[in-house]
Amino acid sequence: MRFGRLGPGLLVFLVAVSLLTPSAVEAAPPRALATFSGTLNAGEITSPPLDWQLNQDISGFVFHYRITGGSQLNDVVYVTFTEANLVWPLLMGEGWEYCEDCSLEAGMYHIEVEADGNASGPITFDIGAYRVEQPPVDFVGQMPANSQVWFSDFGVRFPNAGTYELTLGVTSGSYDFFVDGEETPRATVTQTRELALDIVTPGIHLLEVYTEEPGDVTWSVQIKGPPKLEVRIVNTCPVLNPESGESVCVIGAEATPSDGSNASISYLWSTTASGSFNSTTSQWVEWTAPPGVASYTLTVNASAPGYLSDTDSLKVQVVPEFPSAALPFLIAAAMAVVLFTRRSRSRSAA
Predict the structure, then answer these.
(1) How does pLDDT run across 6-44, given as a tens digit for each residue?
(2) CB 202 within 8 A of CB 130
(3) Nearest to residue 226, comparing CAs of 13, 18, 27, 14?
(4) CA distances in angstroms from 285 to 56, 229, 235, 253, 294, listed in the order given
């Protein structure tokens, strides 16, 4: 089409349509919930364990690892999420694993990373827990020749039914690509290729990269989609105690468009129960907790014209404080219990 033949009104209309119509954009990796890195000698374990302060309840996540420092059979690490009873053994190279049944409540978790005692030298690790994202999103990995883990899988949240365009990349080796645990692969990838994936049921679907025998397989999977917002709450709330005057939490959110543009972003805050916001539509807000003992979830939704919206949440604890006037009675009660216990023991001895 030659623009010189267009009337000025039509030209303005076409430009407006191109600006308002979202198009597929380059994908980005999932957002991290927590990441950790370090270097261990053979047989060494992280001490003290790594701390993960999870600020919201989650129903699942994607675990990622990148292990470097050696290519021998025993150049591996073992990762344990202690309180969650999760273990990832024999890790080498780079990969992902979808932890579907990993419902975790907000709180402190401890992570141990251990290098195999027969490792040929120091092992460097980069590990993390990542959100289950919606397109556009991409994943990369490597299965070295001596790896004992021959697959990577990852959950992706498809918001709508329809056809999604995937780019299956490979720079060395080959692999099979599976969807939702099917026995027959959707594609055998020996060179970079495109794949149209039909999603009938919206929701989380499992994508898997698998090789029969690693021979230094380096792969990538990119799921394309319209531009989206990625929002995160940028600070946390302390434990609140309304009875002692600590009832207000100041929190804010930050949203980033996946295509790097300056989108006009709107914020909307909500909570699971009572309590009040000074504003529900500002980027920074004050939330006032009600009295009593409870935990509350504060949620922010970010939206913009032409973008997929996104949400983030924060769990807040509200606890009471014993009134100062009651303290002498509590001390007296405790002393009475101790005295009664001693008398009971004396009578038993007699």
Answers:
(1) 343 433 333 333 333 334 445 689 999 999 999 999 999
(2) no
(3) 27
(4) 18, 20, 12, 9, 21
Structure tokens at 40: 């261990």
Residue in the block written with tokens 């419902």: 103
Query: What span, in angstroms and rounded, lies between the C-alpha atoms of 308 and 304?
Result: 8
**Under 8 Å CB-to-CB from 147, ≥6 apart: which residues?**
92, 93, 214
Q: Which residues, 6 or more positions from 240, have their beta carbon under 8 angstroms from its beta carbon? A: 246, 247, 248, 249, 289, 316, 317, 318, 319
Which range (47-51, 87-91, 121-125, 331-335) has the least confidence? 331-335
Q: Residue with structure tokens 């050696």? A: 70
* Comma-separated ranges of CATH 2.60.40.10 domains in the chain: 229-318
List the structure tokens of 84.
């969650």
pTM of the model: 0.78
- Beta carbons of 115 and 68 less than 8 angstroms apart: no
Q: What are the beta bridge partners of residue 251?
A: 285
Mean pLDDT, the chain, rounded, equals 85
CA separation for the pair 198, 343 (Å, rounded): 76
DSSP labels, 221-239: EEE-BS-BEEEEE-S--PP
Which residue did the predictor score with more confidence, 113 or 17?
A: 113
- CA atoms within 13 Å, Cβ hemisphere of 340: 6
Pick the CATH number of 229-318 from 2.60.40.10, 3.20.20.450, 3.40.50.300, 1.20.1250.20: 2.60.40.10
